[in-house]
């Protein structure tokens, strides 16, 4: 099977982590497109049935380039997502991976949102909830905000901030 370059990076990072138990360096085959710029990204792991198996990401870049960001988040999605037990090495071949590279978030209002086009961040103080765009079962702005607010532990009636972002999604 042929994967997009970001998914190849993520799959390579998880596989090498299982082999060597250390985060790997950026492989020589990674193109300039992913080594010459910085961005936040999310790596999502799904079982063959489609259910979420792990998802970890960064809203803002924390690494020197996108490739490193993918490597760190891929390994974290596989072994550090607190919602799931760590992925076992023999599961990796049966997982579907996707990588979302994020634009910088921009302040928004409810009327600026579109759950198919934009992800959303809600925040109030230290509480923050993030939801990627174009997720199955999330069809309305109300659903999108409700899920993000629940993740953040923010009540719908509280005076929270809304930000939106777009993604480049790779499968």
UniProtKB/TrEMBL annotation:
The chain positions of domain AMMECR1 read 1-171
The source organism is: Mesotoga infera
Give start-end ranges for the coiled-coil region(s).
Answer: none
Q: Which InterPro entries match?
A: AMMECR1, AMMECR1_dom_sf, AMMECR1_domain, AMMECR1_N, AmmeMemoSam_A
Name-wise, this protein is: AmmeMemoRadiSam system protein A
Transmembrane region positions? none
- Name the source's superkingdom: Bacteria
């Amino acid at each position: 099977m042929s994967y997009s370059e970001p998914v190849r990076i993520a799959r390579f990072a998880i596989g090498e982590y299982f082999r060597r138990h250390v985060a790997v360096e950026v492989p020589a085959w990674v193109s300039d497109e992913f080594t010459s710029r910085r961005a936040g990204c999310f790596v999502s792991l799904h079982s063959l049935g489609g259910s979420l198996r792990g998802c970890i990401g960064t809203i803002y870049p924390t690494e020197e380039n996108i490739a490193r960001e993918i490597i760190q988040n891929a390994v974290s999605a596989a072994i550090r997502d607190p919602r799931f037990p760590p992925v076992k090495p023999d599961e990796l071949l049966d997982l579907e991976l996707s990588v979302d590279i994020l634009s910088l978030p921009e302040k928004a209002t409810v009327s600026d949102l579109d759950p198919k086009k934009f992800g959303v961040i809600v925040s109030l103080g230290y509480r923050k909830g993030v939801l990627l765009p174009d997720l199955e079962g999330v069809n309305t702005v109300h659903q999108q905000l409700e899920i993000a607010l629940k993740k953040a532990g923010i009540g719908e009636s509280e005076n929270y901030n809304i930000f939106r972002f777009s993604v480049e999604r790779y499968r």
